[in-house]
């Protein structure tokens, strides 16, 4: 069953999906659809921005495949509907698996406990003592405060007033809170709401023990903690350009660019993707900044008439190198509360809220390749075996090479892809000059550039290429 060909398809109607929809509507972009696994609108989807008509409920996305020929995504749902959008935005919502923090004793709690992303509709909070761990359950706090006899919000390392930060002085978050609901701010006036900033040491049979030596007793614990980036896509059918799967790209851990893009997956944007963990910031602040950035990407595609937009491999590589370097220096060492249930670390933004906001505001189109099919490299001039002579080794490789004369310098520029049986055997890009030899040809000087997600290298050269050039036909009149 055909779902249609909207320009933009948003997966998930949670904070991220609704925030993205509001940003699109504010920019005058109306050709989008939101697919939501749930079966009814939550209060956060109040139709202030005319969003409800864009949402298709009971639509669980089970497969996403990129069509290289058409520069479109094929998105299939569990109901066997097929959508063919140009752009896909994956937003955190009910279709993603949450991750629980690795607190000792979590399974010993005798009361009711669950993650906010899998809300327990059967819970009755009237007269109960409820703990909320993390800021991901903010949308439920007003109702909890009305029903429960006591609500404790555990937000380690939070400022003196969480409400003051979230709704008055958090960069951009005040606007986002107004987008989704006007109900959050009043909870600050509830006498039964308590903010606990002491770190959680363990979960007990009856409640939560904190670093100050206190143990608070609860009837229910709601986890609003960060989502597991790797687990979020562990079993998801997500296939990008040239058949590349997300599991192949992230086999050594999730990497992306600014938490919104991943090389090898054109026209795909993420909200709260890798490398943007909220750390000590509100997740709402991150969502708003990313939604605005993605909207600018979409506007750039429209302005240039491009059908494909993909972050450059070199851009993503350098971004992640800097992230690792800053994290190693000890920026925002977040501890267990930013680990999943296997104890694996989740990367937070290694800087201040202000630095993140400034980075997301500096949209640079040069970080991306924007193309249409006619712009891409022509058919290969040579594809087959070759020898790569790099400093210290001579390696048999497979190459696919193309080239063209450049009118600006009058020289022939050639380029292509090098692959080996074991990609780790290939030398690092950016090293000294190498030589490439194809059967029957001469050794030709070249340089190695960026490595793609498959482990292949890009090779470039100027002057006589390693393959023979066909003489141009000259017709006399």
Protein topology:
Layout: E1 2-4, E2 8-11, H1 15-26, E3 32-35, E4 55-56, E5 61-67, E6 72-77, E7 82-83, E8 87-90, E9 112-115, E10 129-133, H2 141-147, E11 150-154, H3 162-169, H4 173-180, E12 193-196, E13 200-203, E14 207-210, E15 215-217, E16 220-223, H5 229-233, E17 237-239, H6 246-249, E18 268-270, H7 283-304, E19 308-311, H8 313-328, H9 353-361, E20 368-371, E21 382-390, E22 393-405, E23 412-419, E24 434-437, E25 444-451, E26 457-462
Parallel strand pairs: 1-7, 2-3, 2-8, 3-4, 5-17, 8-18, 9-16, 10-11, 10-16, 11-12
Antiparallel strand pairs: 5-6, 6-7, 13-14, 14-15, 19-20, 21-22, 21-24, 22-23, 23-26, 24-25, 25-26
InterPro entries: DUF4873, FAD-bind_Monooxygenase_sf, FAD/NAD-bd_sf
Protein name: DUF4873 domain-containing protein
Domain DUF4873: 380-468
Folded structure, characterized:
The chain has 477 residues and is an alpha/beta fold. The protein folds into 3 domains: 8-96 and 230-373, 3-Layer(bba) Sandwich (FAD/NAD(P)-binding domain), CATH 3.50.50; 112-223, FAD/NAD(P)-binding domain (3-Layer(bba) Sandwich); 382-462. It is 19% helix and 27% strand. The chain contains 9 helices and 26 strands. It has a 6-stranded antiparallel beta barrel. A 5-stranded mixed beta sheet has the order 1-7-6-5-17, with no helix packed on it. A 5-stranded parallel beta sheet has the order 4-3-2-8-18, with helices on one face. Strand 22 (393-405) and strand 23 (412-419) form a beta hairpin. The radius of gyration is 26 Å and the shape is elongated. The termini are far apart.
């Amino acid at each position: 069953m055909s779902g249609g060909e909207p320009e933009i398809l948003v997966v998930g109607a949670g904070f991220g999906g609704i925030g993205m929809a509001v940003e699109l509507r504010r920019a005058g972009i109306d050709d989008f659809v939101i697919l939501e696994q749930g079966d009814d609108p939550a209060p956060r989807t109040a139709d202030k921005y005319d969003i409800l008509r864009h949402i298709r409920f009971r639509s669980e996305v089970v497969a996403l495949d990129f069509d290289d020929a058409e520069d479109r995504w094929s998105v299939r749902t569990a109901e066997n509907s097929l959508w063919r959008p140009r752009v896909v935005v994956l937003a955190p919502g009910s279709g993603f698996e949450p991750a629980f923090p690795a607190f000792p004793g979590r399974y010993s709690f005798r009361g009711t406990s669950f993650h906010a992303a899998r809300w327990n509709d059967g819970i009755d909070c009237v007269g109960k003592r409820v703990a909320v761990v993390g800021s991901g359950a903010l949308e439920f706090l007003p109702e909890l405060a009305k029903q429960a006899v006591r609500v404790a919000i555990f937000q380690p390392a939070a400022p003196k007033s969480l409400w003051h930060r979230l709704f008055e002085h958090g960069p951009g978050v005040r606007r986002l809170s107004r987008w989704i609901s006007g109900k959050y701010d009043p909870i600050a006036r509830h006498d039964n709401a308590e903010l606990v900033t002491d770190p959680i040491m363990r979960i007990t049979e009856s409640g939560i023990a904190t670093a100050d030596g206190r143990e608070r007793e609860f009837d229910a614990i709601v986890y609003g903690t960060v989502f597991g980036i790797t687990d979020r896509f562990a079993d998801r059918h997500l296939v990008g350009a040239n058949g590349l799967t997300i599991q192949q790209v992230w086999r050594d851990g999730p990497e992306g660019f600014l938490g919104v893009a991943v090389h090898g997956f054109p026209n795909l944007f993420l909200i709260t993707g890798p490398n943007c963990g909220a750390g000590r910031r509100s997740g709402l602040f991150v969502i708003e900044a990313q939604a605005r950035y993605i909207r600018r990407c979409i506007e750039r595609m429209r302005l240039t008439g491009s059908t494909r937009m993909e972050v450059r491999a070199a851009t993503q590589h350098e971004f992640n190198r800097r992230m690792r370097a800053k994290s190693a220096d000890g920026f925002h060492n977040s501890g267990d509360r930013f680990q999943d249930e296997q104890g694996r670390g989740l990367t937070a933004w290694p800087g201040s809220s202000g630095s993140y906001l400034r980075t997301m505001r500096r949209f640079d189109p040069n970080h991306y390749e924007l193309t249409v099919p006619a712009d891409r490299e022509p058919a290969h001039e040579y594809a087959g075996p070759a020898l790569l002579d790099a400093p210290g080794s001579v390696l048999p490789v497979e190459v696919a090479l193309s080239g063209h004369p450049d009118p600006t310098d009058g020289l022939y520029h050639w380029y292509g892809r090098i692959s080996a049986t074991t990609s780790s055997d290939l030398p690092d890009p950016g090293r000294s000059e190498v030589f490439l030899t194809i059967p029957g040809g001469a050794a030709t000087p070249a340089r190695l550039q960026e490595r793609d997600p498959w482990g292949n290298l890009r090779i470039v050269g100027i002057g006589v290429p390693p393959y023979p050039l066909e003489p141009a036909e000259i017709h006399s009149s």
